Each structure stands twice: as C-alpha cells, then as structure tokens.
Amino acid sequence: MRVFASLAVLAVAAVAGAPSFAQAPAAAGSVRQACAADISKLCPDAQPGNGSVRQCIAAHRDQLSDGCKSALAARMAARQAAGSSAPHN
Q: Which pTM value belongs to this model?
C-alpha cells in the first residue's frame, strides 16, 4: 500500500508540476484520491523516482477516468493562476 501511495504522490507531482505552498496539501490530496485507481490499473509496474509514473500517465492520458482528468485539470489551473499572480521583476 505504501508503494502505491508513493506512486500516486509522484504521479501527481510529475504530471501537475510544483504547486504553490498554500495549495499543495489540498490539491495533491484531491488529485491523489481521484487518480489512485487509474495509476494502479494503468501503471502497475511504474517505479517512483525515475519518471516512469509521469511517462505512464502521459501515455495513458486518454484512458484516465473523468475524475482524474478533472482533478489534474483543476490542479493545473490552480498552478497557472498562482503563477500569474506572482510579481514579475
């Protein structure tokens, strides 16, 4: 179970990128929860730490559940919004 949780965390981080610190816990948790079954089903052999989870998710993008796709899209939108509100020097 810990390996699966690690895969889910890494997939979220790899696919969605680094969030702002304020959004990290809630966003990562919702994506992890929404995509857990997809990662287990589509990427059972992917190992954390070498990019294989990210590659697997990208390769199976069209096969992800609607819930996972929605969570990833919301995470990306939040990340982009946080990035656009940052001051530019």
A: 0.61
Sign of torsion over alpha carbons 42, 11, 37, 63? negative
**Does the structure show a pLDDT above 60 at 21?**
no
pLDDT at 43: 92
Using CB atoms within 10 A of its CB, is residue 22 exposed (0-12), middle (13-18) or buried (19+)? Answer: exposed
Give the whole-angstrom CA distance, residue 17 versus residue 13: 5
Residue 78 contacts by C-beta under 8 Å, 6 or more apart in sequence?
19, 23, 27
Structure tokens at 46: 């992917």
Residue 54, pLDDT above cutoff 70: yes
